[in-house]
Amino acid sequence: MDLNDRKFKILEAIITDYIKTAEPIGSRTIAKKYDLGVSSATIRNDMSDLEELGLIVQPHTSAGRIPSDRGYRLYVDKMMQSQELSPEVADLLHNVVENNIGQIDYLMQQTAKALAALTNYTIVVTEPKSQKLSIKHVQLVPVDERSVVAVIVTENKSVKNHLLRVGSVPDIEQLNNISQAINAAIQNYSLQDMESIASAMLQAHPENRELVTKLLKAILTAVKQNDNVHYYTSGVNNILGFPEFSDVEKAKSIFRALEEKDMLITLFDKNGEHNDEVHIVIGGENNMKELQDCSIVRADYSYGNDSYGTIGVIGPTRMNYSQTVSVLSAIIKNLETVIKSISDGKNKEGKNG
Amino acid sequence: MDLNDRKFKILEAIITDYIKTAEPIGSRTIAKKYDLGVSSATIRNDMSDLEELGLIVQPHTSAGRIPSDRGYRLYVDKMMQSQELSPEVADLLHNVVENNIGQIDYLMQQTAKALAALTNYTIVVTEPKSQKLSIKHVQLVPVDERSVVAVIVTENKSVKNHLLRVGSVPDIEQLNNISQAINAAIQNYSLQDMESIASAMLQAHPENRELVTKLLKAILTAVKQNDNVHYYTSGVNNILGFPEFSDVEKAKSIFRALEEKDMLITLFDKNGEHNDEVHIVIGGENNMKELQDCSIVRADYSYGNDSYGTIGVIGPTRMNYSQTVSVLSAIIKNLETVIKSISDGKNKEGKNG
DNA sequence: GTTAGCACTCACAACGATTGAGTGCTAACA
DNA sequence: TGTTAGCACTCAATCGTTGTGAGTGCTAAC
User: Fold this and answer.
1) Crossing angle, helix B194-204 and helix B172-188, to 10 degrees?
2) Measured in angstroms, what separates residue B16's CA from nucleotide D20's C1'?
């Protein structure tokens, strides 16, 4: 069976209508609302064919049709028109990135928040994560008489604080000396060779054994923490706004799924490398049964050379794919442009290793 | 009308039963379940009296009784037995604090999470906030060729990072010099006198005008940000578990309320100073209409000398007050003990100003 | 003060009838 | 061969009716 132009139009009508109303669409509605020049009986015949192809389904005998996962898939792959963003929205997205680019965690949070507000769906943003992590710089900063913060800057520009509690805190000069020494040691030895770094450090600063030991431990923790995916969510409650989730049990199971970290790993599983496309996973195409009624639109953004994160939009299968893809592409582009403009200096000067 | 012993017992029966089941309790149920030695008719008479006093209400004519806000209030103030925590729970609470005391944001998050898991209610924790904020130490740390992190340590031991983007980043030695200079300047002038600090700094480091300007701005932001209440929530979804909120609209309105920052300010409004009591606000006693079906149990914890935060537990009016108060008191005690043990050195040595 | 007994109330569930949106099929038409 | 009008059929949703049972308030007697 072939899909002629009219059948495509009917499928599109069903999908766009259903996205708007969440109600099954009947043949008469299509005949009246869309000017196809044929009667409802003809549309009925076409709908029967579309159903045979598995593109639409009937919730029950005496109801209209709604799109199936396969129907959405065809729509998304072949029929969907890309949507122009309004200048206001484009501006808003640009500003979110521009204003928060300095603080990576703020940036992630604000990005998620803005996308949630714009799309009305649920947003998950993962922090950029580098494949190979290396420590770039370490600095000790005094906090009070018993604690020092180790500020650890990694190659992929994440800045993390680790508070170290010690018996007594050396003065600032000494802290600077230790900081300098650890930076030198990290340059000289590979991070794998913690033994050598430790012994070198302890030899040079025997009077601050406790501090140095804890510092090294913090650095190890930082390296290990890199394996943890940090992520931010926003708009989780938007789920409750959709009639398909007005059943509390359904909403709860989705919430539970979104709370689990492993879920995200499954969901955002790259099956390989970062790439530039926007990925769409529709309904049952993902294999988590709690999210079978949801679709996920996601895209990676690169952050520096080999570091990247993911932004995912989670909504009902009946989501506005076209708008979502536009907004997502726009924010990714903004992120990458601004990030690139910052790190441009780096390649030219090429000082640091 | 007076409340004799039996009436108290009946009220208590109604409250404890309703907390468990969320169903109205009838006179026969009480007669059977609680051995009061009187018939249901007698209990009926007493219940009628309790209703006249406004301590219980009937949802409709042919239903049992449920406690009113005033009933809960009487129970909480006069009748409630304090509950011993099991050693496991006590241990868990202790460990949460002990293991995370170093990183204040982690500590808040983990505390909220643990309480949410233990109580099954919604937890809101505000970061400790000082009345008067002063900057204790500033340190610049290089990130890449275009950016520097300003690590700002405040008197109440919060450590915040601000990323500064500049045309070119001076070498580490210079960064240390500038850090030292700003620390000195902050010591010499009051923070109110930013003018003087700025001119002194710019005079001393004219070649890093951009960096110094941005640094000063970051410091100002840090001071201002202190006015913002930072808070962490956990267990928001627990709301959906309670039958009284199984109506999606109700749940949504509560979620919306919890999302609003101003709500918290209203909710946690201290009407004055920090004190040691656990406060309980029952149902309509708070004046936010979205939360009229919720109760709030909250307590302040002090963090250092004049800095304190608040932990709030939000649940249905039908919440287990006794357990909640126990858990909350325990975590507050843990927090304060551990915090005190850390800062003990401070008062003895009394070095820094 | 307590209790048994009884009439009364009212939410809730079950049932059946009605409605209406929507379909599939058939026969006729271009 | 594609299109259409017409008609019988299906079935979720709505609505009124009825029965049921948990629970009350009142009264009279103990």
Assistant:
1) 150
2) 29
Q: What is the pLDDT of residues A85-141, one digit of tens each?
A: 999 999 999 999 988 876 677 888 899 999 999 999 999 999 887 666 678 899 999
Calculate helix-pair angle for B104-119, B321-349, nearest 10 degrees.
160
Say how many residues make up chain A. Answer: 353
Q: Which candidate, A97, A109, A119, A108, places its Cα nearest to that of A324?
A: A119
- Strand residue runs (E) in B239-330: 279-281, 294-302, 307-316
- Residue type for position B70: R
| Helical packing angle, A172-188 and A194-204, nearest 10° | 150
Nearest to A345 among B137, B145, B180 (CB): B145
- The number of angstroms, rounded, from the C-alpha of B79 to the middle of its chain's C-alpha atoms is 26
What are the φ and ψ backbone dihedral angles of B299, each rounded to 5 degrees? Answer: -150, 150
Residues 10-39 on chain A lying near strand D, CB distance under 7 A = 37-39
Test the A interface: residue of B109, B130, B163, B236 with most A CBs within 10 Å: B163
The Cα–Cα gap between B328 and B116 comes to 11
Q: How many CB atoms lie within 10 A of CB A82?
A: 8
- Alpha carbon A118 to chain centroid distance? 15
Rounded, the Å distance between the CA of A243 and C1' of D5 is 37
CA distance A215 to chain B (A): 13
| Token digits of residue B75 | 């129970």
Q: Are strands B307-316 and B122-126 parallel, antiparallel or unpaired?
A: antiparallel
Least Cα distance to A176 among A134, A136, A138, A219 occurs for A138
Chain C nucleotides covered by protein, CB below 7 Å:
2-5, 8-11, 20-26
The answer to whether A241 and A122 have CB atoms below 8 angstroms apart is no
The 10s digit of each residue's pLDDT in B227-282 is: 677 889 999 999 999 999 988 888 988 998 888 877 777 777 665 566 778 999 99
| DSSP annotation of B135 | E
Q: What angle (nearest 5°) sits at the alpha carbon of residue B275, between those of residues B269 and B276?
A: 125
Of B164, B172, B346, the CB nearest to A144: B346
